[in-house]
Amino acid sequence: MPAILSIEALGKQYKSGHKALEGVDLFIERGEIFALLGPNGAGKTTLISIVCGTVTRSAGTITVAGHDIDHARREARQRIGLVPQEIALDMFSTVLNTVRFSRGLFGKAPDPAYIEEILRDLSLWDKRHARTMELSGGMKRRVMIAKALSHEPELLFLDEPTAGVDVNLRRDMWALVRKLRERGMTIILTTHYIEEAEEMADRVGVINGGRLLLVEDKAALMRKLGKRQLTLTLQAPLSAIPAELAEWSLTLAEDGLHLIYSFDAEAEDTGMPALLHRLDRLGIAYRDLDTSRSSLEDIFVNLVEQAA
Ligand SMILES: Nc1ncnc2c1ncn2[C@@H]1O[C@H](COP(=O)(O)OP(=O)(O)OP(=O)(O)O)[C@@H](O)[C@H]1O
């Protein structure tokens, strides 16, 4: 089976001359949740808009479920559901009519049972006769998702699904995305919340300045690039790191009481046992020791800095 989405050598230069995307290659497998992570202006929305056919590209090829977006535009677009960043709804229309209408726009025959299923899944069935203006912000977002699902797409784009949303609603959204995936949907979400990528994604792509810096299995990425830190809380403050500890990469906190050792968690010899032994010999006593793994955030900041 072809990848659900295949992007090769994608480039976009806006009329202003700004290069929003350059040489982007991306292949998305069916059934995965892929997070495209990048700061403001990285090119995430541009990429989605090109795949959905609302922005033209300057270079590259794109296929959706094997359909070229130029030569088989309709077949490709039919397979995509898009939930844009901004809520855009006819405020006077009811929830049910909004979703039915959206399905009609794709030339699909009415299917009341399917529409009922998605409205139930999104906890909107009880509100089906409400006008969208009467709904809370969270419900409006769910109506946007119902609209995007109305024509039975295979690939769902969520552009910043939780931007400006409170913590509870964010968690609801995450649960919902997982439910959709369980039903076989492939999901690409863009976010600048690293926590969101860490929480949800199977794979993560990091984009910055229009370039895809890396695409990696999330767990592997965190294993590969994740550093561990050992923090020792000393019994008495040190004024400086003793010369006898020079072979370890240590930092001393300003209070002199916390000694921090960063090491590669995957290395065969982490250097930690030897360090503790040396501290013992030097008579440097500690009250507590704590290890932590670097988060996706640390990894991301590192990558972006390296690229810059
Ligand atoms: N129509 C346009 N004309 C010129 N430049 C544009 C246009 N649309 C976007 N850009 C620029 O292209 C770059 C990428 O924008 P894009 O909206 O794709 O970023 P993004 O990663 O989605 O950012 P955000 O997280 O803020 O939504 C930005 O520098 C933006 O200013």
Automatic annotation (TrEMBL):
Record InterPro entries: AAA+_ATPase, ABC_transporter-like_ATP-bd, ABC_transporter-like_CS, ABC_transporter_ATP-binding, P-loop_NTPase
Protein name per its UniProtKB record: ABC transporter ATP-binding protein
Taxonomic classification: Bacteria, Pseudomonadati, Pseudomonadota, Alphaproteobacteria, Sphingomonadales
A GO molecular-function descriptor: ATP binding
Pfam families tied to this protein: ABC_tran
Keyword annotations: ATP-binding, Nucleotide-binding, Plasmid, Transport
Domain of life: Bacteria
Domain (ABC transporter) ranges: 5-234
Source organism of this protein record: Novosphingobium humi
